[in-house]
Amino acid sequence: MFILAFETSCDDTSIAIFRDDALVAMRTRSQIREHNVTCGVVPEVAARLHANVIFSVLEEVLREADVQLKDIYIIACTESPGLMPSLLVGMTLAKTLSKTLDIPYVPIDHIQAHMFANYIGREESDVHFPAVCLTVSGGHNEIYLWKSMFDREKIGETLDDSAGEAFDKVAKMMDLGYPGGAIIGQYASEYMGSFRGIFPEVLLDKTQYDFSFSGLKSAVKREIDKRKWEKWELTMDDKKEIAFEFEQTVVNILTYKLFLAATKQNIHSVMIAGGVSANDHLRETVERQAKKHGYHFLAPISKIYSGDNAAMVGMLAYFLTKKSHPN
């Protein structure tokens, strides 16, 4: 059973082909260079760039998989959440092909697909339930109680910005470029000092699993303004220290909330998913804490599957199809 999967929720045009639960081929076209000009994604620009390349990406992935459209059994596409102009590009092509080829179309939830990225390259039995899963990227920031494969409950979310959005905005404040996550991580890794805790760790109470990053973002802006007032401009050491302090503070907040939920929900596993799950420091910290407390830990096996990608869409589509047609 061949599955053709589309992901165009933000600024990556990604298409994948699965044979059952095995990834056969995937092609992803990034828009980082174009959005670096504005240090962020402009929805209308992103949609136009998707439309410009989606047919060539489709041709490439079919050629790599040595598959023709007539061989496809199911088409799946991300429908929400995401940037609507971008989503419509993928949905329009996916639904048109579904109608033309007279084959089933499977709508995919973007957040759920990120969670199912933890299945890619693993056996189904490798994912242990019940679990708590932190889904965190530029557009979302939640904690889910994942009771079984298709039974999940959102128990925490951001009240304002997501962690990934905060990374992008802090990088923009220091003129470091886009996307902010990878750049902040690089600058932070080069800082040789110790953590001083110069930024606030917001909402670290014992009664809720929600997040808030707007106050942290404002504190970073004040620190940058203060240093510019004193020195006229940020030095390289300033940028590295601010990146380090900011990243560590975000990791502290995310980790604290994740393990607060794990402790109170009586679970077996902790998982992370979404673009920020590619952050090395976050992965290492969560894995270390999971081992310390005796939890099974999972993150996508490759950073490729942490960010937006069609492989996670295809994987979820496979399990949804298996659920509805078990034979």
From TrEMBL:
BP terms from Gene Ontology:
tRNA threonylcarbamoyladenosine modification
Q: Which GO terms describe its molecular function?
A: metal ion binding; tRNA N(6)-L-threonylcarbamoyladenine synthase activity
* The protein's Enzyme Commission number: 2.3.1.234
Gcp-like domain segment(s): 24-314
Pfam families, A to Z: TsaD (PF00814)
Which reaction(s) are listed as its catalytic activity?
L-threonylcarbamoyladenylate + adenosine(37) in tRNA = N(6)-L-threonylcarbamoyladenosine(37) in tRNA + AMP + H(+)
The UniProt keyword set, sorted, is: Acyltransferase, Metal-binding, Transferase, tRNA processing
Entries under NCBIfam families matching the protein: gcp_kae1, T6A_TsaD_YgjD
Protein's name according to its UniProt entry: N(6)-L-threonylcarbamoyladenine synthase
Q: What class of enzyme is it?
A: transferase
